[in-house]
Amino acid sequence: MSKNTSSEIKLTPTAPAALPALKGLNLQVFVMIAAIVVIMLFFTWVTDGAYLSARNISNLLRQTAITGILAVGMVFVIISAEIDLSVGSMMGLLGGAAAIFDVWLGWPLPLTILVTLVMGLLLGAWNGWWVAYRKVPSFIVTLAGMLAFRGILIGITNGTTVSPTSPAMSQIGQSYLPDGIGFGIGVVGMAVFIVWQWRGRMRRQALGLATSSSTAAVGRQAITAVIVLGAIWLLNGLSRRYRPRC
């Protein structure tokens, strides 16, 4: 019986292995990138190149900065299988409070930023306490927070616009970093990223897990560095060509 078993094992065909090049591809990411490129090319063609102009790129980056910051924080909420409906209203409330501190109360900018950050921490901790310790669903907690924060904002501002902000406050969203600082931040960020990647690779090797070749790893990191530093160089050029007025 052992002979038959061994012969069956020998005669059993092996399934064809997937192409190694396709295993590491994240098709969802590539599809999203391709869609963004197509959209950008379409609007560039429709607007006769105005979409990729220095003025428009500067405006897009400034307008999407708040959404991008919120999205980074929401990643941690989503990966924990929760939801936060109050994040926009909380941001509006904190922005309104910062404007009141700056315009109506005349606080110095460092104090305004510090108090606003502490308020955000306390409001977030309040929502988290109900979800983590009182076991109230995050949908209910943040829905109530969304309505409450929006109502508080209307109440403290009387439904009016708080302006004009001080020049120091305006510079946060309307000024540009010098070219040298931008490149310095990019180089430091890339160095931290490369060290983190190689430490993770060494940990995988120590555990006996599969890792890509050193050539492939170095190639990916080199491409990432070129893209990041190239983007910084492009943005520095745009900032020199278009400086929005405060």
Considering the chains and any ligands shown, give keywords for the structure:
3 domains, cell inner membrane, cell membrane, 246 residues, ABC_transp_permease, mainly alpha
> How much of the sequence is in beta strands?
under 5%
Which shape, going by the Cα principal axes?
globular
- Report the count of strand segments: 0
Sheet having the most strands? none
Give the CA-CA distance, first to last residue: 87 Å
Structural class: mainly alpha
Radius of gyration, CA atoms, in whole angstroms: 26 Å
Uncertain spans:
15-19
- H/E element string? HHHHHHHHHH
* Mean residue pLDDT: 85
Percentage of residues assigned to helices? over 70%
Question: How many structural units, i.e. domains?
Answer: 3
Q: How many helices does DSSP assign?
A: 10
Family: Belongs to the binding-protein-dependent transport system permease family. AraH/RbsC subfamily.
Pfam family, one: BPD_transp_2
InterPro entries: ABC_transp_permease
Keywords: Cell inner membrane, Cell membrane, Membrane, Sugar transport, Transmembrane, Transmembrane helix, Transport
Describe this structure in words.
With about 250 residues, the protein is an all-alpha fold. The longest helix is centred in the last third of the chain and has 28 residues, at about 180-205. It folds into 3 domains: about 25-80; about 80-175, no CATH class; about 175-245. The chain is globular. It has 10 helices and no strands.
